Amino acid sequence: MQGLGYKEVVEYIQGNVSYEEMVEKIKKETRRYAKRQLTWFRKYENITWINGQDDIDKNIDIIINNYKN
């Protein structure tokens, strides 16, 4: 099993860790995965970063304008 959280849930079901430990391990591994993704993407100069918190129309405009250029 390679998906995030599967290994930790199995450990919990088998009684090897507590619920709280499982949750903390999942959070930790998720942060590590996100950090690896950012590291990988940063080496590409032609990536346009958008803010997922911004208005959807603003992000669509950024994507369209980037594509046209």
What topology emerges from the helices and strands here?
Blueprint: H1 6-13, H2 19-42, H3 56-68
Helix pairs in contact: 1-2
Describe the structure in your own words.
This protein is mostly helical and 69 residues long. It has one domain. It is 65% helix and 0% strand. It has three helices and no strands. It has helices at residues 6-13, 19-42, 56-68. The radius of gyration is 18 Å and the shape is elongated. It starts with 5 loop residues before the first helix and ends with a helix. The mean pLDDT is 93.
Quick tags:
69 residues; mainly alpha; 3 helices
Straight-line distance between termini: 41 Å
Please report which band the strand proportion falls in: under 5%, 5-15%, 15-25%, 25-35%, 35-45% or over 45%.
under 5%
- Gyration radius, to the nearest Å? 18 Å
Please trace the helix and strand order, writing H or E for each element: HHH
* Arithmetic mean of pLDDT: 93
CA-based shape: elongated
Low-confidence spans:
none
What structural class is derived from the secondary structure elements?
Answer: mainly alpha
Total strands: 0
Helix content bin:
55-70%
* Helical segment count: 3
Query: Structurally, how many domains make up the residues?
Result: 1
Main β-sheet: number of strands, strand sense, barrel status? none
